[in-house]
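Figure S7 source data.
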Amino acid sequence: MMRYFVFLLIVQIQSCLQIASSSKSTIKTLPGYHGDLPFKLETGYVGIGEKEDVQLFYYFVESTRNPEEDPLVYHICGGPGASGLLPLLEQTGPVNLNYIDNLTLTMNPDAWTQVANIIYVDIPAGTGFSYAKTKEGWISSDTILAAQANEFLKKFLRDHPKFLRNPLYVSGISYTGIVIPKITLELYEGNERGDQPTFNIQGYIICSPLTDKFKDFNSRLEYAYRMGLISDDIHKSAIDNCDGNYVDIDDSANAICANSLRRYEECISHINFENILDPFCDDKDPKQDCERVYRKALDKWANINAVQKALNVRQGMIGEWETINYTLHYQQDKNDTVYYSYDIFSSFSDHKKLLSKNCRALIFSGDHDFTFPYVGVEQWIALLNLDVEVPWKPFFVDDQVGGYETKYAQNGYSLTYATVKGAGHSVSIYKPKESAALVRGWLSSQTYLSKIQDIGLPNRLPPCIPSSSWTPPLYLAGTRESHGSVRCSSKSVFKRELTVAEEHEEDAVVVAERKSRICASRNEEDDAVFADGEVSGENVVRNTERENDDEKKTAVQISGAERSTIEVQISGVSTTSPMFFFFIPDFTFLIYSLHFITHRSDEIYSKNEPQIRFEFNF
Ligand SMILES: *[C@@H]1O[C@H](CO)[C@@H](O)[C@H](O)[C@H]1NC(C)=O
Ligand SMILES: *[C@@H]1O[C@H](CO)[C@@H](O)[C@H](O)[C@H]1NC(C)=O
Ligand SMILES: *[C@@H]1O[C@H](CO)[C@@H](O)[C@H](O)[C@H]1NC(C)=O
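C-alpha cells for the predicted 2-acetamido-2-deoxy-beta-D-glucopyranose complex:
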C-alpha cells in the first residue's frame, strides 16, 4: 500500500549495450564566430528504424556550467518541420546569429545551455538536415514523430552513456505540445517495463503549446475579448449564440452566430498572431515579404557551404536547407498530406496519464501570443483538476514583473504554469531574459511539492511498532563535495498524544532522545556537512541517535501524526545530489532521491523558500 518513489538507480550499463550506429563529431569552430567555440557542440546523425532509413540530424550542446550534473533537455521544435538550428541560434542556444551584422555569431547572455545540456533534433525527415533513404522514410505523422523521437533518444543515450544519469526533461514548443506528453509518457512507461536504458526522466517543458486542435483555436475568441480586440457586445453575442463553438460553424444553420463571428473575424483579421502588438503582414499578398528577418538569416547562413562543412553535414542529402519546412508545417484545419498525417488531435489524455507519474511539468506562454492563447492553456490545465499549491502570483526579473505563475501539485506530479508578460509565441525570442530566468529557476528549484497519500508500510513491519502509529523517520544524507547547511522544519498535526517510547520500552534506542531536531546531522569527516535543523510545531517530534550506525547517525520520528509537512531548505554547494531517506528502524530502505543541483548557491538557494516539501497524510 505504500505509494513510494522508486530511487532510480542509474548505473552505467554500457557493457550490455550494443554500439549504436551513428555518426557524431565535435564542432570546434563555426563560420561567423571568431576563434574556437567556448562551449562544447556536437552534431551528428542517428539512424531510425531497423534499416536506419531515416537519418535524424542533431545538435548537442553541453552545459557551460557542469555538464556532468546539469539536466539534459531534449528539445523538439515546433512546426512540425522547424529545424533545431532555430532555437540553437535564435532562442535558447549558446550563440545568437546576428542578422543585421552580416551573419556573425555572438554569445547569448540568456542561453539555457548555461544551466542545461541540450539536444536539438531535426525531426521528422524533411526537417533541417534530416533526411530519409527510402520513400517511406519521408512519410511521417504525429504518432510516427513521437515514436521516432523516443527511438532517437534511446540511441543517442546509448551512444552517450555518461548523460544517462542527468535529470532528463523533454522540451518542446508550439505544435509539439501535441507530441511532447506522449514522448515523455513513453519514457516513464519504458522504465516501468524495465526497458534499457533506464531514463532518469523528471518531466517536461512546453512553451506556447498546442494541446487540442479545436480548443486552442476556439480559445482565441475569449483571448481577443480579454485583450480588447473585440467589444463586449461581439463577445456576448458569440457566447449567447454559438454554443461554445467559434471555429467550425455552419453559416446557414446559425445566422446570428455566423454574424457575430464575422464581426469577430473582421476585428482580428489584421492582427499579427505571433504577437498581437507586432505589425501585421499579409502572407497571402505576394507583394509583401513576411518572412521574419531572423529566419532569412538562418536560411542564408545554413545554406553556406562552409557552414555545412563545419557542421559535418552529409552533402547532397537534402535540397535547400529551410528553417521551417512548410510542407510539414501545420495550420488550422490543414488536411493530411502525403508526407504527414496530423493524427493526434489532442494531447490532453497524455497529460492526464502523466499525473500518475513522478513528474514535473513547466508550461509557459507569452501573454501576447494569439496563435495558441494562454486562455486555452488555462482551460486544459483547469481540467486536469490539480490542487493549487501556489496561486497565481507575479515572478520578478530585475525587480520587474516578468510574468505570472501558478503552481499545481498532486501526488508525485507538479505543474508550473506561467505567462511571460509582453511575450509573443516564441517566448524566448521576445523575452529572452524572462524566459531564461523562468526556466533556470524551475530547473534548479526541484520543488517536489509531493503530497504522498496513502503512505503506509512495506510488507514487513518492524515488530514493535504498531502500524497505526507508525510514521516514517526522515534521513537527509549528503555526499562528498557537499558544503553548506540544511534547514528542516516539520509541522505535524496529531490525532492524539502518542508516545511510542512509553508503549514500547524495548525500542528505547530508537526514540530515546527528545531533541528538537529533525535533520540528520553528519560531521565533516563524514563527507557531508549538514547543520542541525529546526523543528517547529508540536513537541511530539523526536530525534533519534543511533550511535552504532555509521551510515545513519540521526533520524527523526514523527509519531501518531495525522498529517506532517516536512520542508527542507538547502544552502551551500554540492556537486552531487543529496538524498532523502525515509527509514523504518531496522528496515532501512530508500524511497526517494532528489537530483539536486546545488553548485550555484548564489543562484539557487538564495531564496528563503523551502526547496522541497513533503506532505504526508496518514
Ligand atoms: C561585417 O560587415 C562590415 C561591412 O561590410 C565589415 O566592416 C565588418 O568587418 C563585418 N563584420 C564581420 C565580423 O565580418
Ligand atoms: C520538406 O519535407 C518534405 C516531406 O518530408 C520533403 O519531401 C522535402 O524535401 C522537405 N523540404 C526540404 C527543403 O527539406
Ligand atoms: C480538407 O479536406 C476536406 C474534405 O476533403 C475539404 O472539404 C477541406 O476543404 C480541406 N481543407 C483544406 C484546408 O484544404
